[in-house]
Write a structure and sequence with these properties.
mainly alpha
Length: 84
């Protein structure tokens, strides 16, 4: 199961075969998209009386996992194997 997940993530990472400049532009857009998504969520949380919409909160959670989740899971898995 893990090998299938790893193969899927590797295929998503290696998506392409396009020119190098296209890959560079895509990689440069990622921080901007994350900032817009988290900024929208924060603005909704601060200004809307009921808080952010469910869709916006879900997307912010996805972006948060994209930014921090893989490292967290990596370190948690590493700590679990070493017995810490």
């Amino acid at each position: 199961m893990r090998q299938a997940d790893t193969a899927l993530f590797q295929a998503m990472q290696d998506k392409g075969g396009g020119p190098a400049w296209v890959d560079a532009i895509v990689r440069l857009q990622r921080p901007f998209v994350a900032a817009v998504a988290l900024g929208t969520w924060a603005a909704q949380e601060l200004t809307m009386p009921t808080g952010a919409t469910e869709a916006c909160s879900n997307f912010a959670a996805v972006v948060g996992f994209y930014l921090f989740g893989d490292r967290t899971l990596f370190y948690a898995g590493k700590a679990g194997k070493s017995g810490k």
